[in-house]
């Protein structure tokens, strides 16, 4: 009887020890998860959202409008440089540069000649309010926007692609 009681107590102790996880086991699992996250998360590509793409289009339109306003206000010729390969747009009045991320495709349809000179990489605004015109397309898979500059009025509009 004493022997049975000792065996029951030993068995109960063993079952109680196996009932839960030790703190060290939980810490090891959390450390492994943390290391995996540190390795995997930086390699996941940061994708431009639809809202952020729309924000880029609005920023581009605002920059072009500012250059047009500067040309009208100062009565000078203002040139906005568009470099689609480098994904940049440089304001001719303020020097501000817009840079777009790698996952945003930038395409520009610009006039090859404007005001009796070669253009091709810029949108020019004149003191009269006119411009050389052009279209800057910002796109990513699934959606896109076009920022259009009217050559006659110099007006800037955003069109969903």
Automatic annotation (TrEMBL):
The keyword Protein biosynthesis does not apply. The chain crosses the membrane at residues 21-45. This is Type II secretion system protein GspH. Signal peptide: none annotated. Pfam families: N_methyl. It comes from Bradyrhizobium macuxiense. Keywords: Membrane, Transmembrane, Transmembrane helix. Gene3D superfamilies: Glycoprotein, Type 4 Pilin (3.30.700.10). InterPro entries: N_methyl_site, Pilin-like.
């Amino acid at each position: 009887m004493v022997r049975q009681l000792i065996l029951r107590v030993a068995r109960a102790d063993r079952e109680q020890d196996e009932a839960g996880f030790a703190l060290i086991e939980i810490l090891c699992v959390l450390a492994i998860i943390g290391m995996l996250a540190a390795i995997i998360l930086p390699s996941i590509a940061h994708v431009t959202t639809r809202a952020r793409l729309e924000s880029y289009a609005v920023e581009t339109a605002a920059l072009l409008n500012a250059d047009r306003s500067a040309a009208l206000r100062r009565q000078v010729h203002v040139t906005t440089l568009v470099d689609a390969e480098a994904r940049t747009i440089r304001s001719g009045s303020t020097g501000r540069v817009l840079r777009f991320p790698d996952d945003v495709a930038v395409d520009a349809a610009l006039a090859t000649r404007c005001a009796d000179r070669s253009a091709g990489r810029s949108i020019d605004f004149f003191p009269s309010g006119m411009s050389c015109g052009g279209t800057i397309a910002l796109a990513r898979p699934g959606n896109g926007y076009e920022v259009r500059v009217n050559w006659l009025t110099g007006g800037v509009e955003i069109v969903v692609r």
